[in-house]
Write a structure and sequence with these properties.
- By secondary structure, the chain is an all-beta fold.
- The protein has a single domain, classed as Jelly Rolls, CATH 2.60.120.
- β7 and β8 form a beta hairpin.
- The radius of gyration is 13 Å and the shape is globular.
- The two termini are 23 Å apart.
Amino acid sequence: MATIPTQFAGVTALTKANVYFDGGVISHTLLFPDGSKKTLGLIRPGKYHFNTGAPERMEVVAGTCAVTLDGQTAVNVYGSGQTFDIPGNWGFAIEVKAGLCEYICSFLA
């Protein structure tokens, strides 16, 4: 199981929220001095589909989500402390059945 960060120091936090699916998914962007970017967010119960530009790593901070990559039938369930990667220029469905799923999304390229 991965070690999920509990805080980030020395970053710029953008105050404008990224709001998707009428508030079903909300995140805030963090900009790092090295030019990298992450978002911190939460997902309300529901099923959502996202497309990526750059490869992404999702780290589940709290809660549970079920993920299916486009073109696959396998559903993988991730909980607190687990991570999964999504290729660049790809899509995935993510479902939260109950509660909130809190996450950190790192843009890898």
